[in-house]
């Protein structure tokens, strides 16, 4: 219950900040969307599980993702509600994603200087054929971390940051059909299931082959997401984002220990 209350307060703060800045036509779009959403629901809402609600903040994010086109935003929201009914992301636990979690592919890496939560993705530990023959397991892993980070957002913080470390990237391991399919799923989750939740996505240690990969995956990205991608060519870029005490030594910081795995190395908060 506490998690739900805190997240709803965060959503209310987000809406209170955004609504006064809207143009009149965007206010009208929000009012129309409220009416359309009033008859919608999903299992988590009906069973009072987790913190997801059809609040103004939720509606605003879907409207923003579709440039305040109400018809397109409604279609996106309907698809999201079906997705939530299928995966029930608020109910996911460590036991649901134990194998991929233990692989160390994804970890929380503390907070940025702006207090945004950082998710660190270690591509070297990404072994699709071994861990994700059923792509639903990958979806659950992504959903688990989105839900977890949203729950831990501090007051006045509404977005997160992802750092992809491509050290260890292998075209054979990561450029195959299954790997690219999972990357496409991740992009879809960022854009369609958790719209407007990303501040920036940083890509470090990108090999020469990444240019080939980028030409493929950027086709799946909407303009808004493309503009949030930062290819890190100098680790000083990360120091501008993260305090050196939080940043690992391999990225130019002072942290000597690797980021722990939530639910494995440390208990969930």
From TrEMBL:
Ranges for domain CRAL-TRIO: 93-259
GO molecular function (one): phosphatidylinositol transfer activity
Domain of life, per lineage: Eukaryota
Pfam families: CRAL_TRIO
InterPro entries named among the record's database cross-references: CRAL-TRIO_dom, CRAL-TRIO_dom_sf, CRAL/TRIO_N_dom, CRAL/TRIO_N_dom_sf, PI_Transfer_CRAL-TRIO
Protein's name according to its UniProt entry: CRAL-TRIO domain-containing protein
Organism: Aplanochytrium stocchinoi
């Amino acid at each position: 219950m506490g998690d739900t209350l805190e997240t709803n307060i965060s959503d209310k703060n987000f809406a209170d900040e955004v609504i006064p800045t809207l143009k009149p036509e965007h206010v009208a779009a929000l009012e129309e969307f409220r009416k359309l959403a009033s008859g919608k629901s999903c299992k988590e809402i009906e069973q009072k599980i987790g913190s997801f609600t059809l609040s103004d903040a939720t509606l605003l994010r879907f409207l923003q993702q579709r440039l305040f086109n109400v018809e397109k935003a409604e279609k996106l929201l309907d698809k999201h509600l079906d997705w939530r009914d299928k995966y029930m992301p608020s109910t996911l636990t460590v036991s649901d994603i134990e194998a991929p979690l233990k692989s160390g592919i994804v970890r929380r890496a503390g907070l940025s200087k702006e207090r945004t939560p950082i998710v660190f993705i270690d591509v070297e530990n990404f072994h699709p054929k071994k861990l994700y023959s059923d792509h639903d397991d990958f979806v659950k892993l992504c959903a688990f971390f989105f839900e977890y980070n949203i729950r831990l957002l501090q007051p006045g913080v509404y977005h997160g940051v992802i750092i992809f470390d491509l050290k260890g990237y292998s075209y054979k391991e990561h450029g195959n059909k299954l790997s690219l399919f999972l990357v496409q799923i991740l992009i879809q989750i960022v854009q369609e299931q958790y719209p407007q939740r990303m501040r920036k996505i940083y890509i470090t240690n990108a090999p020469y082959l990444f240019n080939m990969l980028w030409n493929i995956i950027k086709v799946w990205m909407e303009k808004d997401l493309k503009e949030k991608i930062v290819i890190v060519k100098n680790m000083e870029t990360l120091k501008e984002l993260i305090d050196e005490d939080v940043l690992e030594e391999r990225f130019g910081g002072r942290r000597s220990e690797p980021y722990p795995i939530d639910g494995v190395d440390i208990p969930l908060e």
